[in-house]
Amino acid sequence: PGVSVPQSPLSDNPQIDLGPLSTDLLFMVRTLQSMLRPDGHTMRKALDTESGMIGLLSIIWLKPGISQNELASVVALKKSAVTKLITKMEDRGLVLRSKDSADKRINNLTLTDAGEQMIHQSRIIAQQLNERLFQGVSGSDQETFFQVFWHIFSRLATEGAQISLEDRQPD
User: Fold this and answer.
1) Do 77 and 165 contact (CB within 8 A), yes or no?
2) Using CA atoms, how far apart are residues 22 and 4, in angstroms rounded to an integer?
């Protein structure tokens, strides 16, 4: 069943029936990603950061002491891309890299005070964005949205979704 989308940004036509595309997850996710790109750019500019850094800092914030390898697997980036971003963040004084006491080959990551401050600022911006995006959407619909999202995410992670790390770039 198609969903009629008023004032669609996908067409000059004030109303376009997306037909089967309205329930095509890949199409809708890609379109949403494209529509959110300016918000990501605005956030990165406000925080004086580059693509990928906020996501990495957020995971380190949630799991202090995470290894670089584990971080790379969580965000589905090549280890080399994560290393490059971590080095930049370390140079900016946002993260500390320390050798694991049990295995000196492993680098564990924690946030500095400056990194904590950046996360605090990013969470404020993200909350404002979420409030804008979910304006007019009931709390129960938001809860359902995230339940379905996490169901799909968890299933793909469990199935070992085939993500080509060679092709994946920071968002």
Assistant:
1) yes
2) 8
Where are the extended beta strands (E) located within the chain?
Answer: 4-6, 15-17, 66-67, 95-99, 107-111
Contact 110, 60 (CB under 8 A): yes
Give the DSSP letter string of 54-115.
HHHHHHHHHSTTEEHHHHHHHHT--HHHHHHHHHHHHHTTSEEEEE-SS-TTPEEEEE-HHH
**54 within 8 A of 46, measured Cβ to Cβ:** no
User: Which two three-digit tokens encode residue 161?
Assistant: 């979704």
Closest by alpha carbon to 125, among 71, 63, 49, 32? 49
Give 127-171 pLDDT, tens digit per residue.
Answer: 999 999 999 999 999 999 999 999 998 888 777 644 444 444 554
